[in-house]
Hints:
The protein is an all-alpha fold. The protein has helices spanning 2-37, 46-53, 56-87, 96-105, 111-125, 132-158. It has one domain. Helix 1 packs antiparallel against helix 6 and helix 3 (56-87) packs parallel to helix 6.
Amino acid sequence: xxxxxxGRVLYREKVLANLEESxxxxxxxxxxxxxxxxxxxxxxxxxxxQKILESNQYLAYSDQIIYRFSKLQDNMGAKLFxxxxxxxxxxxxxxxxxxxxxxxxxxxxxxxxxxxxxxLRNEIAHDYSSNDDVTIDILNTILELKDDLRKILERVQxxx
Length: 160
């Protein structure tokens, strides 16, 4: 019994560490958007994006949004979700879709929404920087999805 309690405490610590990392990435995404919205209106239009490209500072914010979103999605999918299920006593040695379905069952995520987030991450993994229209779409979609990601993280936090 004591061993089981120690394991549960360790899994909870792992969830908390993964949650902290996820919130850190999300905060960086939000801060970069905050800086860009001081100068540009969102959803970003092509003419505004051209001005972002002309400024190293604004381009760095744009790149930070995309990079941190990718890191956030990776961390949630590869670490946070599994650590949460381990904490709850679930088996995570199964296909990722089964893990997502379990998370949906306990009302952490909506599987269809998660696939939308994952699809965006996959689009970023391909060289988005060579196509301005794709980059604009990615930035605008991240802006739409960041609140959904925050809600997922908050539901994980509430489940502890």
